[in-house]
Amino acid sequence: MNRFLKIALPMIAIVLLATPAMAQDATTAAAVGRSAFAIYFGGAFGAGLVILGAGYGIGKIGSAAVESMARQPEVAGNIQTAMIIAAALIEGATFFALIVCMLFNN
User: Fold this and answer.
1) Residue 13 lies inside a defined structural domain of this protein
2) pLDDT above 70 for 96
């Protein structure tokens, strides 16, 4: 949990500090509406969660594969093949989720 807080708190601070930098004129904000910010923020937040989840999943797969290869070096080829296939499936799902997030923004 402590590791999560070390990552989450700076990310929240960056989001809060970046908001004034992206401020719009009053006429533009009135024309676009306040809901547009929520839509764009929702898509960006979803894309960020997708990338974090994919990175975490691929990292767990890699660490488990290296540990199992160290325990049984004779099956390292099979483990590496399974690891690459699993990582490719995670990346495929990640790209699909990113496309959905980008479509949600428009």
Assistant:
1) no
2) yes
Q: Is 6 helix (H, G, I), strand (E, B) or coil?
A: helix
Residue span of the structural domain in which 78 resides? 33-106
pLDDT tens profile 56-89: 999 999 999 999 999 999 999 999 999 999 999 9
* Nearest residue to 79 (alpha-carbon basis) of 70, 71, 68: 68
Q: Is residue 19 part of a domain?
A: no
Indicate yes or no: pTM above 0.70.
no
d(CA 13, CA 11): 5
- Residue 105 belongs to a domain: yes
> How far, rounded to the nearest angstrom, does the alpha carbon of residue 12 sit from its chain's CA centroid?
15
Is residue 95 within 8 A of residue 34, CB to CB? The reply is no
Contacts of 61 (CB under 8 A, 6+ apart): 83, 86, 87, 90
The CB-side HSE value for 1 (13 A sphere, CA atoms) comes to: 0
With contact defined as beta carbons under 8 Å apart, do 103 and 39 qualify? Answer: no
